[in-house]
Design brief:
The structure is a single chain. By secondary structure, the chain is α/β, with parallel strands linked by helices. The chain has two domains: 1-45; 66-187, Glutaredoxin (3-Layer(aba) Sandwich), CATH 3.40.30. The protein has helices spanning 17-45, 96-112, 128-138, 148-153, 181-187; strands at 66-68, 75-77, 86-91, 118-123, 143-146, 161-165, 171-176. Strands 5-4-3-6-7 form a five-stranded mixed β-sheet. The chain is globular, with a radius of gyration of 25 Å.
Length: 190
């Protein structure tokens, strides 16, 4: 028989088996918190006051946008807007930032329409019926098209994103995150 006395491990022993689990949990929680801080920091840094430097499209011809408007069924083609300023907004009903900015776009439309500024929302990852219902309920009478290829051509990385197209068809501004009426109006004449 073994005459050694076996003692229960001291729970205050920081080098015991339980402390390893506690350290792993603490490290995991710390990593999650650090990731959250990083994501929130990026969100604040791109909240709609981007001057367009992130887009490789600045100074380039606007990529094609064509499709049937989900509200009216009428065909839309960005080429038909040549000679006018155009705001292109990438949108989804599932996108929190898109929901925040929508009243700003509705207000901007009231200012823009009499000045001949066109607007188009490109719906991303949403059924057309849901997008149409959203616009009927929340306002906005501008063109709303479904075109997944367009978001790729514009290099859209996150929603919402907004581009301003000059009358000659050149991309002149780009915003990531929720846009405001003031941001848009500041870039347009009169």
């Amino acid at each position: 028989m073994d005459d050694q006395l076996h003692e229960a491990p001291d729970v205050t022993d920081l080098d015991g088996p339980r402390s390893g689990s506690a350290r792993r949990i603490a490290l995991g929680v710390g990593a999650v918190l650090a990731g959250l801080v990083l994501v929130l920091g990026l969100a604040v840094a791109t909240r709609g006051d981007d001057d367009g430097t992130a887009s490789g499209l600045l100074g380039q011809r606007v990529p094609a946008i064509a499709g049937d408007d989900v509200l009216s069924g009428a065909p839309f083609d960005i080429d038909q807007t040549r000679g006018q300023w155009v705001v292109v907004n990438f949108f989804g009903t599932w996108c929190p930032g898109c929901l925040v900015e929508h009243p700003e776009l509705v207000s901007f439309e009231q200012w823009a329409e009499p000045r001949g500024v066109e607007m188009v929302s490109v719906v991303v990852n949403d059924p057309p019926e849901r997008a149409a219902e959203f616009f009927r309920n929340e306002g906005g009478t501008w063109n709303v098209v479904m075109d997944q290829r367009t978001s790729i051509d514009f290099g859209v990385a996150q929603l919402p994103e907004t581009f301003l197209i000059s009358p000659d068809g050149t991309v002149v501004a780009h915003w990531t995150g929720s846009i405001t009426e003031a941001n848009l109006r500041a870039e347009l004449p009169g």
